[in-house]
TrEMBL record:
SUPFAM superfamilies: ClpP/crotonase, PDZ domain-like. This is Carboxyl-terminal processing protease. GO terms for biological process: proteolysis; signal transduction. The lineage of its organism: Bacteria, Pseudomonadati, Pseudomonadota, Betaproteobacteria, Burkholderiales. Its EC number is 3.4.21.102. PANTHER family: CARBOXY-TERMINAL PROCESSING PROTEASE CTPA (PTHR32060:SF30), TAIL-SPECIFIC PROTEASE (PTHR32060). NCBIfam families: prc. It comes from Massilia aurea.
């Protein structure tokens, strides 16, 4: 087991996207089990139900399977992010935070119809080479229907041993009939940070997910950008569709651009150990021994004009970064309202290799704002395309999930389009578009971010022109 889990790691979760078929969890820490009083009468009732099932059900039921499902249902009923992790799920969690896992290499979400929607195949992954494309809908996995299947179960079917194969039934907008695509599973090494000069003097830095190597990789990319152009005029930090990851990674990314020792995020919950503050110091973001990766960054990055790009797929740890930079007025947040995943989960190992992931706190920006079920509202609202926000306007947010944790303070924000005609218009328009390549010349939001950095007029969203700094209460 990696040092992340030995030292009590904190993880950020985006429920709408699972990178590489791993589940990423939010502000996640590992604690020993706590002794507490047990409801004896209710436990006896549970035992009675188990006994009735074992003696009266039409077919024999294994004790382990029965009790595992009972635990799963009990924990899942609390909120969308509490869960029972069996040995396999717990192992996959550890693998995902290390940036290595065995799978297909796809970023996914759940579609409106309950199918698995491909956000994007990872470059050079098995799915990429097999022809999986952004926007594809997986309807069957090895012949098993996806609709109505819990996302965790669907993910388990796609995971497996390296060298084995999985057959996917895929619906593609441009194809007249469903496609059958067979993909070989293999180890995926995720690269969470990309960077390049997009114009003379202007750089683009993308963080797709927060993992163990993210802070080191980001520092290396920033140093390379500075060597390429020491006279940088502006930086665009791209957090679109970043579902979260390690909280330490989020702290390190924010700390690279904020004053030394600045508070990045705080948490508050029922237990004393859930009330904490996290600062931009090495002990809060370093996961590996050795030199502080931020210590050698050029001082220019503390003052360089910045824009942060976000959208509905920006969740949890990415919202922590955006919220901190927004509170300190260090960067302008451009794009659309984020997912709103602002709760903290604690991992408590149980039994042998299993664990319970339990929501234990909410997290807050440095100014004390709860992001839960609200998200980050952009300072500069800009749609994904010149003529609208595309399918991003129809995506689910935290506030749309059943049993979601309330904000605990400020009002939640209604997010979804209820107009059926507008939904159909967006869906039809999406069928005519090619997949958006972040960082390319066709990236409309990036172009608007560059215009903002240059002090030029920006094309604001037609649906959210009232989203301004004033609405943030700042």
């Amino acid at each position: 087991m990696g040092s992340t889990f030995k030292n009590g790691c904190l993880i950020g979760l985006g429920i709408v996207a699972g990178v590489g078929l791993t589940m990423q969890f939010s502000a996640l820490s590992f604690k020993p089990s706590l002794e507490s009083s047990m409801p004896v009468a209710e436990l006896r009732e549970l035992a009675d139900v188990v006994g009735i099932i074992k003696t009266s059900y039409v077919e024999p039921v294994q004790d382990k399977a029965l009790l595992s499902q009972a635990i799963t249902g009990m924990v899942a009923s609390l909120d969308p992010h509490s869960a029972y992790l069996d040995a396999r799920a717990f192992r996959e969690l550890r693998e995902g935070t290390e940036g290595r896992f065995v799978g297909l290499g796809i970023e996914i979400s759940v579609s409106e119809d309950g199918y698995i929607e491909i956000i994007s195949p990872m470059e050079d992954s098995p799915a990429y080479h097999a022809g999986i494309k952004e926007g594809d809908l997986i309807t069957r996995i090895d012949g098993h229907p996806v609709q109505g299947t819990p996302i965790d179960d669907a993910i388990k079917r796609m995971r497996g041993e390296p060298g084995t194969h999985v057959t996917l039934t895929v619906v593609r907008k441009s194809a007249p009939a469903p496609l059958t695509i067979t993909v070989e599973r293999r180890e995926i090494v995720q690269k969470s940070v990309k960077a390049k000069m997009v114009e003379p003097g202007y750089a683009w830095l993308r963080v797709a997910q927060f993992q163990e190597p993210t802070v080191d990789d980001m520092a290396a990319k920033l140093q390379a950008l500075y060597r390429e152009d020491p006279d940088l005029k502006g930086l665009v930090l791209d957090l679109r569709n970043d579902p979260g990851g390690l909280l330490q990674g989020a702290i390190g990314v924010a700390a690279a651009f904020l004053p030394n020792n600045a508070e990045i995020v705080s948490t508050n919950g029922q237990l004393a150990d859930s009330r904490q503050r996290f600062y931009g110091r090495p002990e809060f973001y370093m996961l590996r021994s050795g030199a502080d990766p931020l210590a050698s960054l050029p001082p220019a990055f503390k003052k360089l004009p910045m824009v942060v790009l976000v959208n509905t797929g920006s969740a949890s740890a990415s919202e922590i970064v955006a919220g901190a930079l927004q509170d300190y007025k260090r960067a302008a947040i451009l794009g659309s309202q984020t997912f709103g995943k602002g709760s903290v989960q604690t991992i408590r190992p149980i039994g042998g290799n299993a664990a319970v992931k339990l929501t234990t706190a909410r997290y807050y920006t440095p100014a004390g704002r709860s992001i839960q079920a609200r998200g980050i509202l952009p300072d500069v609202p800009v749609d994904e395309y010149p003529d609208g926000d595309g399918l991003n306007a129809l995506r689910m947010r935290e506030a749309d999930l059943q049993h979601h944790l309330t904000n605990g303070g400020g009002a939640e924000v209604a997010t979804r389009e209820d107009d059926i005609e507008e939904q159909m218009r967006l869906l039809n328009a999406a069928r005519q578009r090619k997949p958006l390549d972040y960082g390319s010349a066709d990236d409309f939001q990036l172009a608007q971010a560059l215009r903002h950095l240059k002090g030029q007029p920006v094309v604001l969203s037609g649906r959210a022109k009232g989203t301004t700094l004033a609405r943030q209460g700042r």
